[in-house]
Each structure stands twice: as C-alpha cells, then as structure tokens.
Amino acid sequence: MSASLFSRDTAITVGFFLALGLAWEFGVRWSGVQSYLLPPPSAIAAELWQSRGPILLQSLVTLSEVFWGFIIAVVLGVPIAALIYFSRTAKRTVYPLFVALQSIPKIGLAPLIVVWFGYGLTSKLIMAFLFAFFPIIISTLGGLASTPAHLEEHFRALRATPMQSFWRLRVPAALPSFLDGCKVAMPLAVIGAVVGEFVGSNDGLGNLILTASGSGHTTLTFAALIAVTLLSLLLFYGVAYWERFIWWRAA
Amino acid sequence: MSVVISMAGAGKAFDGRKVLDKVSADIGAAEFVSVLGPSGCGKSTLLRLIAGLIPFEEGSIRFNDKEVIAPTADMGFVFQTSNLLPWLNVRDNLMLGVDLDPASERPDAAAFADLVETLGLTGFEASHPHQLSGGMRHRVAIGQALARNPQVLLMDEPFGALDALTRDRLNMELLRIWQRDRKTVVLVTHSISEAVLLSDRVLVMSERPGTIVEDVRIDLPRPRDPSVTREDPAFGDYVVRLSKLMGVA
C-alpha cells in the first residue's frame, strides 16, 4: 500500500501538479495579468520565503486557537453525545438545542463572540470550537448507536455490567465513527479560527490575509492562504494518523 | 442421571403472537441434546429462554432446580454469528467472558494452553478476528464459552454459516471436546444429519408456535466420528425417521 516515492503513481501526481504550476506561472506571464491581481507561483514562493518569520509566527497563533478549540469540542462533545444517547430527556431537550445552535450561521455569531470575549485567543478558540463541535457530537452519537445488537446480546449472555458494556463494547465500537467526525471537524475548526480572526483580531493567519489584501499585498495574501491550507492539511493528517490504531473499522 | 435443565409448559409470545407453546422437556447432566425444527419455529427463542436472555411468560424453566431469571456463569452461550470483538486478539477474545464476569473461574496457564491446543488455535493467540478464517472464528467463539468452564453449553446454530467441509470438521472437534469434558450441551440446528451425528437425544419441534412434538433417543455407539458414524445403517434410519417427523421426506 505504501507507494514508493518514485513509483508510477507518485510520478503522475507530481507531474500533474507540476504541470498545473507551470501553466499558472507562464499563463500569468504571457497573458500580462497584473501581479497584484494574480501573482505567479514563483512570486508567491519568494514571498513565502521572505516573510517566513511573520507567517510562521501567525501560523502558531492560529494553530493554538484551532488546537484548543478542537480539544474543547472533543472534551465537551463526547460526553454530551453520550448523554443524548443514554438519556431520553436529553434526546428531547439537549439534542434539539444543539441542532438549533448548529443551524445558526456561525459567521453571523462571530461579531458577537468578539464583543463578548475580546480580540484575544478566547474568542477565536470559541469560534473554532463552534465549528468543530457539531460533527463530533453527531459522529459520536452515530458510533454509539452503531454497536451491533448481536454483540450487545452477547455481552448480556456474558453477564457484563452496563459499565462494562459501555467501556468495553460501545466505546470501541464508536471509535471509527468518532474518528471520522474528528476528520470532518478539524478542517472546520481551522475555518472557524480564521473567520474569528477576520472579524476581530490583531493576530493569526486570518488577520494576515485581511491586512495583506487590504494593503494590496497580493503575494502575501496568497502566501498566507497557502500557510492556512498547509496548517489545515497538517492537522487533518494528524487526526487521520490515529486511524491505524482503529484497524477494526472495516471488520 | 440428574436433571440440569427442566422445562415445564414453557411459553413465549412476541407482540401477542405466540412463538413457543407448552414446551416441556428435561435435559440431564452430560447429555448432548439437539433441538431440531423448521426455521421460524422458535428454537432459537427457546435457547434464549433457557439462557435467561429473554424472560419466559408461561410455565417454568429451571436450571439446577432454580428458576431461570438471568444469564448465569454456569451456562455458556455460542451464538450463530461468531460474535468476536474485532479489536481484541484471540487470547483476549477467549478470555472475554472470564474477564467480564468475576464470578466465573479463571483457567490457569496450563488449562488455557490446553484450550488453545484443543481448538487448534496454537500460534494464533495474538491474531485478530479479521485475520482468521470463518471456521477459526467459530472455534474462538466456542473457546470463549468453554474458557469459563460452564456446566452447560448452549449453541444456537453455531456452524450454520459455514461451508459443509468446515462444518464437518468443527462438528468433529465439538464431539471430541464433548467426549472429553462431558458437558451438558443443547444445540439448536436445522440440520437433521448434524443432530443425529452429535446427539444423545433430538427434540423435534413443530412449526410456530413451536412445541416439542417428539423426543428421539439416538442410540449410536460413541465415540462417534462423522466418516464412520454416517456409514452406520442405524444413522440412516434415524435421519429418515427425523425427516418424516419434520415433514421433509
């Protein structure tokens, strides 16, 4: 499965993106498009290198917002999902509450959050949390509900206590779905943090994008966008990495 | 012979529809009893009533002279699907019942090694279920029930999903284990030849609502072996007789 670095498939992928980059580079040069509208990749690459200090610094700001927002989404989301799963009352009260909250456009909430929690880390962390929270609840709920009925009966035949059934059957059975939820939630948390930075912040990659484009510094805007994308990819694969420990997802 | 399981007029209905009606039979210690019946006759339900997995509504079912109200550690249940936990290896799956239930006795290292050996799972202790063949998974499932050393083994069509060859092989292993340990076994099956091959007695059930219509004693010599026992003319006679009772011949 692990393709060699020089395999045919790798060559095709690399070749495709190389061709795309070259088409961009020379398309921009030959068509005479102004570089403040669409800079060529070479200019963006140069900008990335030149501004590597501030970009890295702002990336770390955004990273910490995303990280904490995501962690809080997991820490709060999983118990709430368990509560909804086990309590009929919670299913009829807490669950519709969160569905309603999810239905509010969170971008519209951003100005309020900034007013309430200020320009610092807290408001961005909350935005990341708001974006990541719902997929984690839904996937955990789905995972808990996906426990096969024949295994539940089997545990009853083995005289397992409800706690044993929860920890030793439902939790492992729910993990694959939970991890899928995390894979959805992580890039959303990045979007949440960047939106928060757009609305009110002096730091972060979102702020960098906003200030760079506001001052007509298009190459820096692109460089910051690439940094956001890389950050998001990195975090996504950081979550996907844990899949190897949940190999039973297909079993 | 002491009676281990005693059913008297047991009945069960689901949503007002009668599934089992006036089921009466006694099963003795170390007996191998098969419950044979057409699909949908309630034979799996009967096994679950005996196991205490679902409550009966009429009559009584007693295990060691006590009314069955919940699963006990003295009865091991082998389900139709092998029911292994995909995240546990063979060793942990075998020990699952023991690990979950503090009331069950834990086999020592020698007994465990013996169990693994008997089941032909030596060398696979660290494998996970998805790495095993269907037949091996069923052996692990049987081993899980045996690991608790229960007095009674309840088996619900445990080899139903397997091909004929694997099924034969597992039947032979089951015979060998039973001939050695002499546990009480109640096996639910819809295979007439399997019932004759393995059992001391075959309880034949009617269509739903299921009840026991005939209690057939199988007087074939033991130890039995599928290839030898099937050649016995008496084996054929039993198969014909049971087929007639089942209305398939």
Describe the structure.
The complex is a heterodimer of chains A (251) and B (249). Chain A has a single domain (51-250), classed as MetI-like fold (Orthogonal Bundle), CATH 1.10.3720. Chain A contains 10 helices and no strands. Chain A has helices at residues 8-31, 41-50, 52-86, 88-103, 106-117, 121-145, 149-157, 162-199, 204-214, 218-240. In chain A, helix 2 packs across helix 10 and helix 8 (162-199) runs parallel beside helix 9. The two termini of chain A are 18 Å apart. The model of chain A has no long low-confidence stretch (mean pLDDT 91). Chain B has 249 residues and is an alpha/beta fold. Chain B has 2 domains: 3-74 and 151-246, P-loop containing nucleotide triphosphate hydrolases (Rossmann fold, 3-Layer(aba) Sandwich); 84-150, no CATH class. In chain B, the strands form 2 sheets. Chain B has a 6-stranded mixed β-sheet, with helices on both faces. Chain B has a 4-stranded antiparallel β-sheet with strand order 2-1-4-5, with helices on one face. In chain B, a hairpin with a 2-residue loop joins strand 1 and strand 2 (17-28). In chain B, helix 7 (192-198) crosses helix 9. The two termini of chain B are 34 Å apart. The model of chain B has no long low-confidence stretch (mean pLDDT 89). The interface between A and B is medium-sized, with 19 and 21 residues.
